[in-house]
Amino acid sequence: MNKKIIAFILEQTTASVCCIDSEGAPKCFSCFYAFNSEEGLLYYKSAASSNHSISIKKNPLVAGTVLPDKLNKLVVKGIQFEGIVRDAVHPEAQKASQYYHKKHPMALAVPGDMWTIQINHIKMTDSTIGFGKKCEWYRS
Fold this sequence. Notes:
CATH superfamily: Electron Transport, Fmn-binding Protein, Chain A
Shape: globular
Distance between the termini: 10 Å
Number of helices: 3
CATH class: Mainly Beta
CATH topology: Pnp Oxidase, Chain A
Strand content: 35-45%
Oligomer: single chain
Helix content: 10-25%
């Protein structure tokens, strides 16, 4: 994965994630996340009873965005991603709690389940390297 993409995702804290419900309608939610750059995994915590969690259990394909925590209106920077949510017993999901609670220790006091997004594609826009410049990454 491109070092600029990794550095950007590691510096931020929140993502917007979109899924499709059982009737085909889009659902979006925001979440705090932790990123495992070695495996291209994004971890978040959410209640299994939430509408988006119920939708993801039926259709695990997701897309989302990460924008800078502090927006600079003169600099366009952010990522769009596509991936698949892995269930808690999937081998890739085993480190979710460890990564997430290391980055967000206060979340130990908040009930919820850990979720893992295996990111399969990222497109990053970064106008700090030139207006409209983009770099992409695909899981091989």
